[in-house]
What does this fold into?
Amino acid sequence: MKARIIDGTSIALQVRREVARGVEEFCQKCGRSPGLHVILAGDDPGSAVYVRGKEKAAEEVGMHGKVHRLPADVDPEYLVKLVRELNADPAVDGILVQLPLPGGLPSQSILDAVDPLKDVDGFHPINVGALWSGLPGIVPCTPNGCMRLLREAGAHLVGARALVVGRSHMVGKPMSGLLLNAHATVTIAHSKTENLPDRCRDADILIAAIGRAKMIAGDWIKPGATVIDVGMNRDEHGKLCGDVDFAGAAEVAGAITPVPGGVGPMTIALLLENTLKAAIARESR
It folds into this structure.
């Protein structure tokens, strides 16, 4: 194996320690702890696991919060009403609507109801616009975590050729914006991109976020490239794997994230960081 492994677990732990120190300072200054509230509708097993992880992580760094567990057939108007109540609650600094919402619920209108200053997922149009305008705002957790991993890996971004494979609103598009803001030369690829292997072979920085197990083969990787694998899939044996064939890519890449233990731990860590930043910003107004 040639590539250096980018250890997301240890870097996420470092971020959590930084947040815990920040929370302690915030409590001393403001006389309260930052508040994070999560809305979970339905009984999707994956979402339930994610939310329990977020709840535990918030407690460990000294935040307080609550999970609002609702049935899958919750009235959309009730959901919007709940969001507005949390917007008005001065003890709530961060609001997260766990996605995906059950079918039939209008996800975008519910996300749009969240106060942009409390939108710790960074999905509100105001925060999306700020990102693409290069203005201050809350940045989506997973792409922000990827940027932290790139920095920790010592990746040279200015002028680098970066390829983002995937164009989702949650990862691909904001990831592209962050890389552009870091002065990389960015290409977005997707399911209809022609000659995808060749596009990958041109990339100094490769972000895989397409949601297909081991789709990106090792011989698609440019020698010495930095590879960030956002994918979380199951392979033919039922084992967790990413969008990149790790074994093959690790023989070629300069640095690569594993799955699990790469991007995944960073998402919750950056959620905590976003919540602390939102709390500080609100207290400074």
In short: Residues 8-30 form the longest helix (23 residues). The chain is about 40% helix and 15% strand. The two ends are 51 Å apart (CA to CA).
